[in-house]
Amino acid sequence: MTVDTRKDWDTYFMDIAYMVSTRSRCSRRHVGAVLVQGKKLLGTAYNGAPMGVPDCSEAGCMIAEEYELVDVDGKQEMVKKQRCVRTIHAEQNLLLFTDRIDREGSSVYVTDEPCWTCANMLANSGVTEIVYHRPYPKDTEKVTEMMRQKGITFRRLPVYEPPRETVMTVAD
C-alpha cells in the first residue's frame, strides 16, 4: 500500500501564495494572493507600486501618518500609525488582473488576512472563500462579521508553516 505524501490543497495553494509574495519589493511586508477554482490556479498577484512607477525600493516608502484610538492595558490611547500609500495590495492586484467570470465561486488564498478595504473588494468580487495565514488583528472583527453576512467562508490556517525561502521579517 502506498502512502500519499503530497501536501494537502490548502498547504499547496498557500505555499504558492507565499512564493508569489517573494516578487514584492515592499520593504515593510511581502504579501501574495492566488485565485483558485476547484483545484485549478487561475491567477496570482503580490503587493507593489503600479506598473511602470518606481517602487519603494527605488523611491522610498510613501508614508502616511494616521492616529488611531486603541485599547492599551484597558485604557483608550491615541496611537500614531504609519502606512505606505504607494503600494497596491495583493488582493487588489488579484482583482485587477483576473476576470469576474473566473472569480465566481472561487477561493482566494492570501498570505495575510485582508484589510478592511481589500475585504470589501473581495466581498463584491464573486469569490466564495478566503483563506489566509497571518492575522491582521486591527480589522479581524469587522471583516469576519462582513464575511459572515455575505456567506463567504473566511478562515485562517493557524498551523501552516510557509516555505523557508519565503519568510521575511514583517514590519508592523
From TrEMBL:
Organism: Paenibacillus rhizosphaerae
Gene Ontology CC entries for this record: cytoplasm
Listed InterPro entries: APOBEC/CMP_deaminase_Zn-bd, CMP_dCMP_dom, Cytidine_deaminase-like, dCMP_deaminase, dCMP_deaminase-rel, Deoxycytidylate_deaminase_dom
Highest taxon above the source species: Bacteria
This protein's record includes keyword Metal-binding: yes
Active-site residues, as the UniProt record annotates them: E91
GO biological process, one term: pyrimidine nucleotide metabolic process
Protein name in the entry: CMP deaminase
